[in-house]
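User: Here's a protein and a ligand (zinc ion). What would the complex look like?
Assistant: Let me lay out the input and then the predicted complex.
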Amino acid sequence: MPGPVYSPVEMIERLVSFDTTSRESNLPLIHFVRDYLASHGVESALTCDESGKKANLYATIGPGDVPGIALSGHTDVVPVDGQRWHTDPFRVVEKDGRLYGRGTADMKSFSAIALAMVPEFIARELTTPIHLALSFDEEVGCLGAPLMIEQLGAELGPQPKVVIVGEPTDMAVVNAHKGVICFRTRVRGLEAHSSAAHRGVNAVQYAAQLIGFLVDLGEEMKARETPESGFDPPYTTIHVGTIHGGTAQNIIPLDCAFTWEYRLMPGADPDEIRQRFERFANEQVVPRMRSVGADTMIETELVSAVPGLEPDGESPAEALVMALARSNRTEVVAYATEAGQFQQAGIPTVVCGPGSILQAHQPNEYIELSQVRACEAFLRRLLNEVCAA
Ligand SMILES: [Zn+2]
């Protein structure tokens, strides 16, 4: 008795209906997909996080002992809090040739279209397998995919020979993106009455010095620009996103913390900025703080690190996906994806998926139905590529 069959649009409706905002568990969606695949005789392997509330899903259609083509999508979405939605974000509404709903562009549609086509994949005799790789917590630092990538080549079967990450590119073939490395820096000063500033160590002011150093470093990165890279902007950027410090105007602040990141050009040294920042902190700033307060300190912790995707003209992923997308060119994008993580594991990877990144994270997010059809046609060409006849 074969399992239920969904059209691509019906499957998009189904996946969007699960509220998989990154702070929530994604298990209801994962269990739905697992059960759906099982009903078609396809087994899934789940890799869970420590809490047991999040899971990746990996499934292979076709022979299990040879490397295949992996279709990769993240299951989580960004929050809708505070956004002005005209419709329920978790119920797909079709209007004027578009499907509205959270995750329609970023990026449940790619996974949904692939899932809807599973019965079609099964009906053909695949010589090269198609793998489905669904991850959790992409939107909060690409935390889920590494757990799955670790088990490729072992528990999950052979490493795929190509990974297609279906983030929204309007079905363009993207072969490069920047990496993103995020940090939290805490400055612990020494409290004092503000009339006795010399007895205190002002955590806010020392944090400002550290931030000033980052701003200068950012200018230095800008001077190293490589316009031919195609990136906008064509250099590594540094950015401070949040800062919290101090308790009252008349107290020398004890604590100040800020979060910062750099978005690294592919091929750039991932450690340079952090090392120079720490050297400045330890050699220039901490000694001055300690001359007044022995217990003062600066601590910097890594919050997340997503490697960039490096262009590789020899990559079989580029050649295959350009042929499938009927495109003779590749593009670069500014946002980071899990593609860099797959590539770092040695798997040729490109990004190519339906919908526009301009819709990602927006209220009233939508995908054009024409993009759904373009992705379906793309996957059907892939199917023709990987089956015997
Ligand atoms: Zn995404």
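Summary: The two ends are 26 Å apart (CA to CA).
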